[in-house]
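Ops channel
N.P.: pipeline sanity check, posting one input/output pair.
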């Protein structure tokens, strides 16, 4: 166990048992003071963000190689590219400074006021320049449900699904940080298989509950990453809402896959939970049968016991309501297999690339990670406590994803990713 993951550790910064940011988490993010433009790299602790640039100035991160460059950068890119040894040293140094038995920061009120900024006073930004975004389709339950709807239960899984982690190249330019709202997309659809398609605002706007892994060091073009080395290339994890327009998607997806039904907006949570913080929550994934080809055989447990929830706040309703509760441990293909598969042909990953899991669905209907499944393509609308009925999202609806690993008396959490639907433009 990495010493920073000791469940007995406590910080001098108060952290409640439900708070997502105890000393065992220490997720990284990029923030600015509200109303200012300077970007800062920080770590969340309790209801505060610890400004790492301040710690560098005070000479408190001298044990971390090139800390002066890494933590005064515009975003997390340089730190993410630095690799595991630097990540481990930084985490150890930051954890030590935040411990309740460590006086350096605790007993220095001037530095503490400068370095510990209330989360209410900052605005979070994208943590890194995401150059490429790949979306996998790693949940067997999700793939089976969608396949059953569109092709029938006997042909639910395509013949390749159990042999390789299916994915498509998504669009990085439209990835936004939590809190950014977007306009309902317009496009072509042909849901009734009429003679001619129609054009207009999507009538089947959906969310997708996903996790996203951010790449640390990349690989040179032409040099695949072996499955056993894949973990060295993964820096951390965020929540992803891969907003989808199902009617547009259904009409356009054959034969080249998703396009405008997917690329109008993808939201991510601002705090990157480092893989080191997730170590204690690694669990065995579902058994893989048939055995994958040798280049996809990972050893060790690479599923993660992460509780995941989706909350819908219908337009005009005073509060959100939980509509999905699932767990990342259900995912069939793991991140090591995804990295190995993505690069096996020589494709190069770069620092900041986002590899999302695809919709995380579990075995029972309450654990489906999108409305397509929850309402069975609109056929069984959700009846919410507020009285609202939803087949798909309506204008003014807000959707929030959250997730956490449950420790003994603390939560290593992801915070949340939220977004609201604005009316179509024009
Ligand atoms: Mn997706």
């Amino acid at each position: 166990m990495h010493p920073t993951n000791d469940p007995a550790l406590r910080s001098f910064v108060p952290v409640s048992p439900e708070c997502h940011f105890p000393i065992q988490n220490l997720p990284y993010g990029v923030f600015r003071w509200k109303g200012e433009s300077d970007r800062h790299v920080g770590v969340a602790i309790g209801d505060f963000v610890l400004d790492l640039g301040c710690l560098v100035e005070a000479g408190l991160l001298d044990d971390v190689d090139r800390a002066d460059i890494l933590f005064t950068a515009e975003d997390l890119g340089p730190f993410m590219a630095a690799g595991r040894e630097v990540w481990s040293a930084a985490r150890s140094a930051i954890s030590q400074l935040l411990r309740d038995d460590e006086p350096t920061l605790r007993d220095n009120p001037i530095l503490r006021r400068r370095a510990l900024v209330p989360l209410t006073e900052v605005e979070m930004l994208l943590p890194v320049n995401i150059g490429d975004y790949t979306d996998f389709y790693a949940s067997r339950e999700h793939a089976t449900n969608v396949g059953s709807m569109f092709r029938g239960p006997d042909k639910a899984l395509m013949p390749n699904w159990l042999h390789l982690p299916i994915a498509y190249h998504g669009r990085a330019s439209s990835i936004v940080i939590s809190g950014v709202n977007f306009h309902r997309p317009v496009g072509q659809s042909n849901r009734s298989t009429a003679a001619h398609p129609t054009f207009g605002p999507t009538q089947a706007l959906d969310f997708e509950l996903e996790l996203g892994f951010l790449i640390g060091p990349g690989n040179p073009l032409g040099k695949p990453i072996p499955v056993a080395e894949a973990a060295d290339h993964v820096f951390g994890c965020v929540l992803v809402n891969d907003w989808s327009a199902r009617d547009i998607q259904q009409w356009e997806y054959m034969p080249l896959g998703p396009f405008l039904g997917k690329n109008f907006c993808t939201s991510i949570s601002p705090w990157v939970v480092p893989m080191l913080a997730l170590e204690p929550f690694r669990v065995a994934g579902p058994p893989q049968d048939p055995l994958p080809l040798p280049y996809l055989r990972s050893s060790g447990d690479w599923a993660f016991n992460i509780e995941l929830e989706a909350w819908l706040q219908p337009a005009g309703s005073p509060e959100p309501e939980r509509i999905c509760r699932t767990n990342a441990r259900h995912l069939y293909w793991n991140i090591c297999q995804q990295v190995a598969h993505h690069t096996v042909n020589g494709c190069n990953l770069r620092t900041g690339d986002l590899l999302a899991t695809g919709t995380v669905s579990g075995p029972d209907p309450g654990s489906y990670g999108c409305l397509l499944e929850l309402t069975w393509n609109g056929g069984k609308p959700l009846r919410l406590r507020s009285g609202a009925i939803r087949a798909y999202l309506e204008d003014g609806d807000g959707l929030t994803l959250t997730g956490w690993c449950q420790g003994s008396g603390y939560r290593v959490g992801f915070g949340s990713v939220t977004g609201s639907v604005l009316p179509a433009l024009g």
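N.P.: looks fine end to end. The chain has two domains: 3-125, 133-422.
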